[in-house]
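Could someone model PMT with this protein?
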Amino acid sequence: MHKIKEELENKNILLGVTGGIAAYKALEVVSRLKKLGAEVDVIMTEAAKEFVQPLSFRSLSHNPVIVDMFSEPKQWNVKHISLAEKADICLVAPATANIVGKIANGIADDMLSTTVMATNAPVLLAPAMNCNMYSNPIFQQNLDRLRGLGYYLIKPDAGYLACGTEGKGRLPAPSRIVENVVEQLTKEKDLTGQQVMITAGGTQEPIDPVRFIGNHSSGKMGYAIAREAVKRGAEVTLITASTSLQPPSGIEIIQVETAQQMYESVMKLQVEQDVIIKAAAVADYRPQVVAEDKIKKDESELVIKLERNPDILAELGRVKEEKLLIGFAAESEDLIANAKDKLSRKNLDLIVANDITADDAGFGADTNRVVMISRTDKTELPTLSKEEVANRLLGRIIELLEGTGEKNGD
Ligand code: PMT
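Reply:
Sure, complex below.
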């Protein structure tokens, strides 16, 4: 508690409160943050005022509460800019579908949406709403878009909702929201100064102008690593095969299609990297000849002759020098033995053995189940979100960079 208080003292927290029944819980959030020594400014939307009086927030935050963009200014500075600049973190709790939609689509038409757009501080959104609104695909797409752009989300709880239904959409307890704020504010930028290259997605090997050989990689694992690495201060290059994901911001993105193109981009940029993480699912083979026109069907069998693609990871292992090289191994049998074999054959520092037999792991899933294997040890992780797997992996990479975990060849 004492440590947390030290961390939060003098931190400026901007709290946006939007119009949902859970707005009353934001009062306790303010009270808890103040007790931890933080400075709290509150912006309410017009709709939020229908649920809780600004006076309550003013009394707890000891600061004027801002609602109206155009009220007579008490200071010379432009309020939405000054609050945006002052904030160490911006929390929106509860965040309605409306504010999430506005932020995701660049609409800035009131004090809160304008300030969120103007801030460089991390933004933490705590959505709360009716469960059908929460699961609405348009809302979920907005969340995905924001996640991809580096916004942080506090997942709602499931349970009895104010509208009388049961489901996902409850604002979590104020203590959990405050925990999330503390976690964000105390997160170390422990990859500052490190150049990190990540590959993601599944390569596509053309057969003719309309067909290709591909795989089920969605890119979620590689993108999660890229997002988390940039949050931890790394300079990230993401070499990505085609996915339907929103490119993360603050990252150099190189789009490729085939394994050969990925090989060329990776080899061109590998020299300047400190860490390379190969989460992409790369096709080992490609059609020897790509038909110029769409192949027509007839009564005979079609035989497509395949030739080997370069093994990018093995090539990186050959030229690796001081950099850290991390591979993934997607395995459906003999997980550990096969991963260990790739670790030594491809001259890696770490391999992430990925059990792809379970529904909640591997290709396409939002969660993953992996074992991290180095030359000296192995760490088995439970089923975790891909973001959490990314963070555990980056934590292990930092140990290897600091020499607290043995590096290959040491
Ligand atoms: O994208 P998602 O839907 O989130 O799924 C994530 C994932 C399952 C794709 C990911 O977690 C994963 O396991 N990626 C590696 C998939 C794979 O191709 O594994 P592999 O065992 O075939 O290859 C081993 C390693 O060599 C990988 O790091 C791969 O990038 C690399 N490789 C493979 C072949 C090749 N020609 N060149 C390579 O560099």
